[in-house]
Amino acid sequence: MSRLEEIIALIQHIPPFPKVAIQVMERLKDPDVRAAQLAEVIQYDLSITANVIKMCNAAYFGLPRKVSSLDDALVVLGNETLKDIIIAGSSAGFYKGEIGAGYMLEQGELWKHSVAVAIMARLLVRHIKDVDPDSAFTVGLLHDIGKRFLSSFVADDFARIVEKVDREKCSFVTAEKNYLGINHADLGAMILEKWQFSPEQVEAVRRHHDSDALERDELTALVALSNGLVISMGIGVGVGGLATELHGKGLKRFAIGSMELQLCMADLVMEMEGAGEIFDL
Amino acid sequence: MGKTIIGISDMKVSRDPEELLITFSLGSCIGIVIWDPLAKVGGLLHYMLPQAKLDEEKARKKPYMFANTGIPLLFKEAYRLGAKKNHLQVKAFGGSQLLDSSNIFNIGQRNYQIMRRMFEKNNIKIAAEDIGGNVNRTVSLEIGTGRTVLKVSGRGEVEV
Question: What is the DSSP letter of A210?
Answer without folding.
Answer: -
